[in-house]
Model the fold of this input.
Amino acid sequence: MSKTEVGLTARQMETYQSLDGEALIAALVENFPGRAAVISSFGAESAVLLDLVAKVDPSLPVIFLDTDELFDETQAYRQTLVDHLGLTNLIVIKPDPVDLAEAQDLWQTNPDRCCFLRKVLPLERAVAGYTVLIDGRKRAHGSDRAQLQALEIAEDKIKVSPLWSWSEEQISQAFKLRNLPEHPLTAQGYRSIGCWPCTRPTKPGENSRAGRWAGSAKTECGIHVEPKAKVMNHLDVLENQSIYIFREAFNRLDKIAMLWSIGKDSNVMLWLARKAFFGHVPFPVVHVDTTYKIPEMIAFRDRFAKEWNLPLIIGKNQAALDAGMGPEQGRVNCCSALKTEGLKQIIAQHGFTGIFAGIRRDEEGTRAKERVFSPRNEQAEWDVRDQPPEFWDQFKTDFAPGTSLRIHPLLAWTELDVWRYIQREGIPLVNLYFAKNGRRYRSLGCAPCTGSIESNASTVEEIIAELETTKVSERSGRAQDKESEDAFERLRSGGYM
Ligand code: SF4
Ligand code: SF4
Done:
């Protein structure tokens, strides 16, 4: 039976098209575990959809787009609904600051461009890791939505509108039956609520969306129509290159896996892998557990491995641990045994020919000598003096038998790029990065060897501001780098990640 690009058969499509409400949400969430997200404006009717979502799975990601032009009442209502329904995975996304600067007051002169910068672009980025996108559109909204179906396939996405067939009467009944809190502006006659400059209350007899862009021919913001030509910024270029590296490695190597250290870089790498493969990571995600990691890191790993449905492999060098290996035996010895040897054991056990690792050139001098596709000999050793050239993103992948590759999708990123991307995409992180009582971690590793830094930066925005002026190096808190002058290069030459 032929399938759509997103893997649905004609029969499945037919079945889904006949459903609505909770049944439709449940069926798709079950068929696409970890790959479904809800998009909500927390507007006048949003409570009904979110209530159904909460019944199916309150931990389903709910993406809220803060355009920077929303009513204060919408921001307050968002929290009211999240608390009332017990939603546990709200993702707030914002436009890129550069785009926001261009969009200043643009709603007055070019609302299409304003919506493109404030809505279409940030949402396009945020949903890249998901296949199923659940929204609150209804036929009753009229205009272009009058012919809406339960499901639409748009390139690599399934757009699902569980309330597609619901009437206004059914929506208001659902509010009463479920005792759902109303948006504070509903009482003032607002029936469809978006950005404040482009929303007014409706008059009696008007369609519910008549108050959106009233007096102009515009009826949609562009989120639900074909994307327009996109101008790439610096982060888009980096993202595109990383996704290309992921797909190139996946196509060329037989057995591939990804290291996940739970730090910010490896979380960004994981996010990019999910984008590269439409929300699904098609290779094992490997965590080398030294048993010395900070407990919050392990809790984060277990939570997101489940939430993102990751094929997780956890490996340890048990023999070394049983023999009492620890940092008191010397940090280079300990890292060699618990990290390098631990990783080698996993590679040998599973026969991996390629491993993705989230290192960056700007992080540390030895890493600056790396290639994107970096060969390792049969002993997983790195010969820093014999590496292939990589001009114009041409990567060598045919090596002698026994060679394995380390692939580095983030090699060209800087620490600031990583944080700006985390801000843009709303990527979750271990909370140790955010200052508490005047201290925070800038780099995460094993508890005995990782120190915090003095800082009051408790948000992503504050961390970016701090990094723009700091003179302190990123790995200044990592004790194993300092054991001797060449400690880190010796570790990496021996196979360390
Ligand atoms: S709805 Fe209005 S203010 Fe909001 S993004 Fe669109 S044009 Fe700009
Ligand atoms: S970072 Fe410290 S505890 Fe962890 S493996 Fe290295 S030396 Fe051992």
User: Anything to note?
Assistant: The chain has two domains: 10-198, 234-493. Confidence is low (pLDDT under 50) at residues 226-230. Residues 67, 69, 107, 111, 114-115, 118-119, 194-195, 197-198, 221 surround iron/sulfur cluster (ligand 1) (CB under 6 Å). The two ends are 44 Å apart (CA to CA).
